[in-house]
Specification:
globular, alpha+beta, 13 strands, hydrolase
Length: about 200
C-alpha cells in the first residue's frame, strides 16, 4: 500500500519517512541540530517547493526542556520556533499547521508533524477537511495518504538510528529515506537512513 510520507511519534521517540513516486531521488542530510530532506546529486532539477525541507529539528524550550519536531515540510521550522518560544506542543503544531494549511499541490497533500519530549508526544495533521492535534502516549502514525488520521502503530526501535531504519524498511511502498530523533533527560539524538 502507498501511504506517502509518514511519521510515527511516541514519548521519547519520533521518526519520519519520505515515500515518493514522483521525486525518489532524495536523501537526508545532517545539519547539526537539524535533519534536512533534499535532492541527491543526480536528481533532476525541479522547482517543486515540497521536495526540500527540514524534517527533524532539535529544540530547547525556555525552561531547558529538550524537544524534537518531526514533519513532512516547511512547517517544521515554524513549529520548532514556536516551541523554542515556549508554546505548548499542541499550540505550536496547531498555529503553524493552520497558518500554512495543506500543501497546494495536485493532491492537496496533508501536512503532518509531531513534537516529542522525553515523556510526552503530540501528533498533528492538517488536511483539506480537518486540523487534528492529539497528545499520544504510545507509538502513533499519521501519513499523507490513506492513513491520514492518527492511529496506533507498532514501533520496536528505542534509539534514533534503529527508528530511522525501521521506518525506512516498513512495509509501505516507494521508500526513499528516513530520519528520527530520541529525547531523554540528556537531550536529543538524531539519526537518518538513506538506504545506502
Amino acid at each position: 500500500m502507498y501511504i506517502g510520507r509518514f511519521l510515527v511519534v511516541a514519548p521519547g521517540i519520533g521518526a519520519y519517512r519520505v515515500s515518493s513516486r514522483s521525486f525518489p531521488n532524495r536523501r537526508v542530510v545532517d545539519r547539526g541540530d537539524t535533519l534536512t530532506v533534499g535532492p541527491t546529486p543526480d536528481a533532476p532539477e525541479t522547482d517543486n517547493p515540497y521536495v526540500s525541507y527540514n524534517c527533524v529539528r532539535e529544540v530547547e524550550t525556555p525552561t531547558g526542556e529538550p524537544l524534537a519536531v518531526v514533519g513532512n515540510g516547511s512547517h517544521v521550522d515554524p513549529v520548532a520556533e514556536k516551541a523554542e518560544l515556549g508554546y505548548p506542543a499542541r499550540d505550536a503544531l496547531a498555529t503553524a499547521l493552520l497558518a500554512l494549511d495543506f500543501e497546494k499541490d495536485d493532491y492537496d497533500t496533508p501536512r503532518i508533524a509531531g513534537v516529542v519530549g522525553a515523556d510526552t508526544a503530540t501528533i498533528a495533521t492538517v488536511r483539506r477537511d480537518a486540523l487534528i492535534v492529539e497528545t499520544v502516549d504510545s507509538p502513533t502514525l499519521v501519513a499523507t495518504y490513506e492513513l491520514d488520521a492518527p492511529e496506533s502503530h507498532d514501533l520496536a526501535a528505542t534509539d534514533a538510528a534503529s527508528a530511522a531504519t525501521e521506518l525506512l524498511t516498513a512495509d509501505f511502498e516507494h521508500s526513499v529515506c528516513a530520519a528520527a530523533a530520541t529525547v531523554d533527560g540528556e537531550g536529543v539524538s538524531l539519526a537518518f537512513d538513506n538506504g545506502e
